[in-house]
Specification:
Largest sheet: 5 strands, mixed
Protein name: Tc1-like transposase DDE domain-containing protein
CATH topology: Nucleotidyltransferase, domain 5
Number of helices: 8
InterPro entries: RNaseH_sf (IPR036397), Tc1-like_DDE_dom (IPR038717), Transposase_5 (IPR052338)
Shape: globular
Helix content: 40-55%
Radius of gyration: 20 Å
Distance between the termini: 23 Å
Pfam family, one: DDE_3
Number of strands: 5
CATH architecture: 2-Layer Sandwich
Organism: Mytilus coruscus (Sea mussel)
GO molecular function: nucleic acid binding
Strand content: 5-15%
Length: about 230
């Protein structure tokens, strides 16, 4: 559910991008995600009126966190970690060790970094570091808008791939994540996910500020190469 104040910001943000015919060529979309080894969601089929089978489940399922970014020129490195993210961790392990080298190598000409409004991402220390290293960030990204971030679909794809491999240990899980990032996340795949924004933003305007995740998938048109909306 999107709060009313953020609904207005979402529509204004969408209209601005549509009016500018934004193509997201220089954007780096980032996000964090948690991957759980055993989510305890198991479907059991049994004969009618038979005794239900009780299966043991882990009280402390293994979970790791990942953070990464995608762009039209490919992916950033992916960081897998278990500790709680702090502002210092975000600055040192993600921005300094990951994002800045990626920008220098892949986007030496121009870039725009997308991040959400998590306090760790908007702290004074984080902003000072980004200014110091000339990181150009998207400062009007609307809150409560994960449907605008194409990397959200990447996490869904990653979960699907991992579930098929059925990792049993932490090492299996981490190796599966890194293998997915290395082999599945090609430049073509990145661009296909980013192109999905061309579908989401116009519809978000037309439907009266609701989150597009509330809609049936059939409402989305086939893949497009730009914005086509009248409002």
């Amino acid at each position: 559910m999107v709060r009313d104040a953020n609904k207005v910001k979402r529509v204004a943000f969408d209209k601005e991008n549509i009016a500018n015919n934004e193509n997201f060529d220089n954007n780096i979309f980032s996000d964090e995600f948690s991957v759980q080894l055993h989510d305890n969601k198991i479907v059991i089929y049994r004969v009618r009126d038979s005794v239900a089978q009780v299966l043991p489940k882990s009280n402390h399922p293994l979970k790791v966190n990942v953070v990464a970014g995608i762009s039209r020129r490919g992916t950033t490195s992916i960081l897998v970690f278990e500790n709680i993210m702090t502002s210092a961790f975000y600055i040192n392990s993600i921005l300094v060790s990951g994002l800045i080298p990626f920008i220098n190598r892949v986007y030496p000409d121009t870039h725009r970094f997308q991040k959400d409004n998590d306090p760790k991402h908007t702290s004074s220390a984080t902003k000072d570091l980004m200014k110091q290293h000339s990181i150009n960030w998207w400062d009007n990204w609307p809150a409560e808008s994960p449907d605008f971030n194409p990397i959200e679909m990447v996490w869904s794809m990653m979960k699907s791939r991992l579930s098929k491999k059925e990792p049993r240990t932490k090492e299996d899980l981490i190796n599966g994540i890194k293998l997915f990032w290395r082999e599945d996340m090609t430049i073509t795949v990145c661009n296909n996910f980013i192109d999905h924004i061309f579908k989401v933003m116009p519809i978000a305007v037309v439907i009266g500020r609701r989150a597009t995740g509330d809609l049936p998938k059939k409402i989305f048109p086939e893949r497009s190469s730009g914005f086509h909306a009248v409002f």
